[in-house]
Amino acid sequence: MKSEIVKKVDFSFIRYAQCWEDADVLNEALSIQPGDTCLSISSAGDNTLSLLASSPARVIALDLNPVQLMCLELRAAAYRELEYEELLGLMGSRVNNERLALYQRCRPLLTENTRFFWDNNQLAIQNGIGSAGKFERYFSLFRERILPLVHSKKRITQLLEQKDLLQRKSFYNNVWNNFRWRIIFRLFFSRFVMGRMGRDPSFFNYVEGSVADKILARTYHAMTELAPSENPYLHWILTGTHGDTLPFSLRKENFELIRDNLDKLEWHQLSIESFLAQAENVKIDKFNLSDIFEYVSEDNYVEMLKLLLKYSSSGSRLAYWNMLAPRSRPGSMAGQIQSLSELSERLHLKDKAFFYSRFVVEEVIS
Fold first, then answer.
1. DSSP labels for 213-257?
2. Which of 293, 288, 345, 289 is CA-nearest to residue 324?
3. C-beta separation of 343 from 360 below 8 A
4. In sequence order, what DSSP letters do the residues of 186-200 get, joined into one string?
5. What is the per-residue pLDDT across 289-347, written as a single tens digit (0 to 9) for each?
6. If residue 159 lies in a helix (H) or strand (E), which one and from where to where?
7. What integer is the mean pLDDT of 123-127?
8. Predicted structure pTM score
């Protein structure tokens, strides 16, 4: 079985310099135990690294884009070589004027191709490697050129201040959600603009309805029901740093746990289908599938689920996101995979990476 998306998308540059999926809900969904074997879509590597904090036996990171794996490789080297505050500086989560020197300390731990790539992307290192992707540049354009047309820096600071639920709703409804915000948001986060400046246009092949309206509704949830003051993804979009809040893999309490388990991490430039076809006697206990089903037809999605079943055990868990294309276990597979609907919904309601319309958690039962 060949991967559908590899035929459609250019994988020669960094698409995502960060994982824009909430590792807190991912880790709670998967409930990783010592001894588990995990398979994880790499992207920039943050969420793959977060799985190491639970001390699994093995974490297998896969990505079709070799440059995304170079992001993971540099992060792994940074966890080995740097101290905690230096890691935050290299990422761009904190101001640091010595990022090139930090990179030079990590460089000897990198493979030749990865060294060549980052040696030729010095500006990306100077700016913080967490800002080096196409998706992050899209947010940077929004932050620097579009958002100032709607809200001042003072108002953005006010949005990110700590408030209770009633205060957050009042601020959003009476201050933030003006006519200009709604109009510009719908234009900038439309299918057309996102497809050309943020994500690949082919990523919207199976999307139904208005992209901008769905994201706007989730943005309201993130700015009211959830606390913006505690949301690292919203902080980055609006300010270009993580501020006083950090995603799971960059929190101090997880730093040593991840560092101590780096020897359990491996990565491969392969699709899931190709990796499993060549793997011998592997059984996967936990799957971080990111939002890969967003980009494939419903028929191919079902075929991939059937393939994953062959390499799973009873109790294996799958976690993945729907952004705009609905994907979840079909009724015909109810005897093999059960949908953990209550857990999925509870976690989705507190998902700080708010773009997604649904978070899906499923468990193999046979």
1. HHHHHHHHHHHHTS-GGG-HHHHHHHHSS-TT---GGGSHHHHHH
2. 293
3. no
4. HHHTSHHHIIIIIS-
5. 999 998 888 999 999 999 999 999 999 999 999 987 889 999 999 999 999 999 999 99
6. helix 153-160
7. 97
8. 0.91
Q: Which amino acid is located at 69 in the chain?
A: L
Provide the token pair at 172. Answer: 């959003």
Instruction: Report helix angle 66-81 to 84-91, nearest 10.
Output: 150
CA torsion 256-257-258-259 (nearest 10°) is 40
**245 within 8 A of 229, measured Cβ to Cβ:** yes
Tens-place pLDDT, residues 42-69: 999 999 999 999 999 999 999 999 999 9
Residue 6 has a pLDDT of 44
Work out the end-to-end distance of the chain between its first and last CA atoms, rounded to an integer number of angstroms.
22
DSSP state of 144: I
SS3 40: strand
The model's confidence at residue 209, banded by pLDDT at 50, 70 and 90, is low
Cα 26 versus chain centre, distance: 10
Element (H, E) at 287: strand 284-288
Amino acid at 363: E
Tokens 């001042």 locate to 152
